[in-house]
Amino acid sequence: NTQHNNTAMAAGDTWLSDYARAQAKSDEADAALKERSRLMRSNQNVSKVTSLVRRLLNELSMATQQLEDDLTEASRQYHITDKELLRRQDLVANLKGRREHLQSAFSSSMMDDAGGRSALLGPSGGGRRVHEDTEATRGLDHSGLMSQQEQIMREQDQGLEVLARTTQNLKQIGYAIGDTLDDHNEMLDDLSQGMDNTQRRLHNETAHVVRVTEKAKTGCMMCTIVLLILAIIVVGAVPL
Q1: Dihedral sign, CA of 144, 149, 154, 159?
Q2: Distance set, CA 138 to CA 116, 142, 144, 145, 218 (Å)
Q3: Contact 89, 71 (CB under 8 A)
Q4: Which residues have CB under 8 Å from 113's CB, separation 6+?
Q5: How far is CA 218 from CA 199, 215, 224, 225, in A?
Q6: Which residues make beta-bridge pairs with 125?
Q7: Residues of the chain whose pLDDT is less than 50?
Q8: Whole-structure pTM over 0.70, yes or no?
Q9: pLDDT tens digits, residue range 63-108?
């Protein structure tokens, strides 16, 4: 597998390196989620690490979707073999499964941990609230606040998915523009080659005309000399 990966990467295939980065991102999300659990057990503030976990999961979701889209494009253009396509599809499926597992663990942690409210509203001290309820949160209990936060996260995920699809569409447009430019370049190359051939033929024909003209000039001079010799002979032969 290592030899196969190195060969593919050497040939300009960036999919495997993109997959390695996405896998590293899932490891980061897993580590951040474990760190959040550790902070929760020690009753420490988890706002910062919660934001980190959410960001890593969103980035992992986008990276996984991009890998899947790139794999579909590669298979459509026959850049990889069927065996390699199946292998990479399994890699993407495993990565998506891990992402879903991490998201589920994170959601459960947000719902079950008493620190979820602190992560949502921010830290408080001295018995004084530092975050005022808004119209959307006023009257909600802990469970309601968590449900609202989950809804916000789902909407953010949907927005990221729309962004990923838009990016993929732009990428497809870029591919189409690139193909069109390649076709135009080929046409220009053919036109340039045709002009070169025409110029060479024109040069050869010009040289041929010059040679014919020189020969014609030489022939006329010879005829004139012969006529003059004949005239001299005739004049010399006539008696005075």
Answers
A1: positive
A2: 17, 11, 10, 9, 112
A3: yes
A4: 40
A5: 29, 5, 10, 11
A6: 128
A7: 1-12, 114-116, 118-132
A8: no
A9: 999 999 998 888 888 778 889 989 999 999 999 999 999 999 988 8
